[in-house]
Each structure stands twice: as structure tokens, then as C-alpha cells.
């Protein structure tokens, strides 16, 4: 019996993600919150013959905080794709001005209505919205770092797809064989492809320009979609798949299922709050507090993570990418954290 709430459920990501969640047999209650059209999406999905009871929640005004509270109460998992997407010419950082306060307010409601829920943040810029969420929960005195996840799965999905095309392997065979760490924006995204001997050997057969092009495509894959949609938004369907892929793991872990991949999907997490995270951060990450690493889940929270520097054969080239990523990440983390200081919750 798992209750899942989607905040931003009527959007480009929210709708297909809610559909996938509705199909999950382990979800007993699906609560759909959005400032527009939540009732319509809920009515539509509620006709699907799967167990989840679907309810829509739409606030009556900007001041209405009761509706989101009702949507959230008793949630085990809250997934947040609320906020604005990019248009051509924008960076994810350009979304900060609008999305920062949306995330702050939604997470404050979660902290009050269902402080024990696992929280998956999709809204960009993830590198800053997750620090915002952490800071809000700290301020409310309910922060559990093991239950706060920045969703970076789309980077892994892209890495599997693009590498599969290059080395002529089915992308699905690369799931759990490669890893993407760092953040979720441009050169903060660091694909690691030397973890298993089999894939490392195939990658060694690529030319330098093929390898560089692969790294660039994973780092800037989001731009390809923004450009192709030409003003109509960013990745929604691939993101719904990716968000669901991670949410399904959290739901499974709440029902006692354990991880079976050698290298599980990564998530952008608060390292000092998880076992051995502080040591990883001090030793390899210039004390960065937030970083995406492969996470192992248990009962809806982080049990442990795979230390890339111990287990994933990080090459010297990949180490350089980590250094570049850390510089960019720190600015985004600071921007997120300082946004909440002085904010009224
Ligand atoms: N983490 C990742 O890998 C990815 C993240 N994204 C991000 O996801 C976010 C959503 O993207 P789309 O679904 O394409 O946008 P969209 O504009 O289609 O949908 C966003 C939804 O959020 C709702 N919303 C706005 N303010 C809200 C609030 N205060 N409370 C509840 N709902 C609210 C809107 O009404 C809308 O239905 C964007 O910030 C985008 O950049 C997009 C792709 C990948
Ligand atoms: O590019 C964007 O703005 C949306 C996103 O995060 C992605 O597709 O990876």
C-alpha cells in the first residue's frame, strides 16, 4: 500500500509520469496536485483498471494552502515536476527565478503534511532546487537526507542510449553497466564508462572524437530536445520514463524489494547525511555537499551508495570531468542554499 503524490501532475512530464505511476500495481493511492487541470487529469486516469485510487487536487487561489496539504497528507512518496521548462537560448539556471520559489513552497508543504515521505525533485535547475529543498526541510526541523532525491536518471538513460548506438549494443544491456555522476546540467554531468571490463573494452575501441562526442551528447542532451521542440518546452516523455524508472525503485523498496543492478541508478543527494557520504565528499569532491552517485535503497530511503572512486574505475579523463563539474556545482548549491536563508516558510 503506497500513496504517491505528483506535484505538477498536469504538465508535460506530470501527465505521462502519472500515467506510468497509475499502472504500477503497488501504488494504492495516486494523488495529483497542480495549479491547473489536476481534476481533469485525475478523472481521465481514474478510468484505468489498475488498483490505484486517483484523486485530483487543484487550489482555489494562490493563498489556498489547504488543498496541497490534503493532497500530500499520508504520502509515502512525492514526485515534483512542477515549474517552468526551458525555451531555446535558456540555460537550466535561467529557470531559477521562477522555479526556486515553487520548490520552496511545495517542499514546505511536504515538511508540514508528510515529513516522512521520500521526495523526488525533477524541477530544474536540479543542482539548486535540491539544496533549496534540503534547506527548507532543515528550517522546519524535519530533514531526512536519506529521503531527498534529485532526479538525474535521464542522464543515465541518455548515456545508455547514446553509448549503445556507438558501440552497437542494445541500450538496455548497458543498464547497470555504466554510471552518470555529478549534477544535472551541462558539464556538471559526468558519464563513467569504465566500471565493467566488458564495456570499458568496447569504449577503448572508440576514437577520441567519438568518445568526446558521446560525453558532449550526454552533457547537452537536454539542449537537443529544447531545440527540436522549438519553444514548446523540453524533454517530457523521456523524462517521464526516467522519473518513473527511479520512482519505481523507491516504490519497490517500500515494499521490501532490493536492488539487483551491479551499478544502480544515481541520484543527486545530500552527502553529509548518508553513511560514508561525508568521507567521499572530503576525499574526492572538494567538500561538495550535493552530488549524484549510484544509490542503494531500502524502505524508501538511501541505505548506501556505490563509491565511484572505489568501485567504478574512474579514469584520469573522467577525474578531470569531475573537477570541472565541482566548480559549476558549488555555485548552484550556494545559490539554492542562500535563497532559503531569509525566506519565510
Ligand atoms: N530532472 C530532469 O532531468 C528534468 C527536469 N525537467 C524540469 O521539469 C520541470 C517541468 O517540466 P515540464 O513538465 O515540461 O513543464 P510544464 O510547464 O509542461 O509542466 C509544469 C507543470 O507544473 C505546474 N505548476 C507550476 N507551478 C506549480 C505549483 N506552484 N504547484 C504545482 N504545480 C505547479 C504547471 O501548472 C504545469 O502543469 C521543468 O522545470 C523542467 O526544466 C525537465 C526535463 C528533465
Ligand atoms: O534540458 C532541459 O531543460 C530539461 C532537462 O533537464 C533535460 O532534458 O535533461
UniProtKB/TrEMBL annotation:
Positions bound to substrate: 86, 92, 124, 158
Residues noted as binding NAD(+) in the record, renumbered to the chain: 8-14, 34, 99, 122-124, 239
Domain Lactate/malate dehydrogenase C-terminal, chain residue ranges per copy: 152-339
List the catalytic residues.
Answer: 184 (proton acceptor)
Question: Tell me, which GO biological process terms does this entry list?
Answer: malate metabolic process; tricarboxylic acid cycle
Q: EC number(s)?
A: 1.1.1.37
- Gene3D superfamilies reported in the protein's UniProt record: Lactate dehydrogenase/glycoside hydrolase, family 4, C-terminal, NAD(P)-binding Rossmann-like Domain
- Keyword entries, A-Z: NAD, Oxidoreductase, Tricarboxylic acid cycle
Alphabetically, the GO molecular function entries are:
L-malate dehydrogenase (NAD+) activity
Under catalytic activity, the entry for this protein gives: (S)-malate + NAD(+) = oxaloacetate + NADH + H(+)
Name the source's superkingdom. Eukaryota
Q: Which residues form a coiled coil?
A: none
Q: Which GO terms describe its cellular component?
A: cytosol
Q: Say yes or no: keyword DNA repair present.
A: no
UniProt similarity note:
Belongs to the LDH/MDH superfamily. MDH type 1 family.
Which PANTHER family does this UniProt record tie to the protein? Answer: MALATE AND LACTATE DEHYDROGENASE, MALATE DEHYDROGENASE, MITOCHONDRIAL
The record's NCBIfam families line, in alphabetical order, gives:
MDH_euk_gproteo
User: What subunit structure does UniProt give?
Assistant: Homodimer.
Q: What is this protein called?
A: Malate dehydrogenase
According to its UniProt entry, this protein's organism is Debaryomyces fabryi
Lineage of the species this protein comes from: Eukaryota, Fungi, Dikarya, Ascomycota, Saccharomycotina
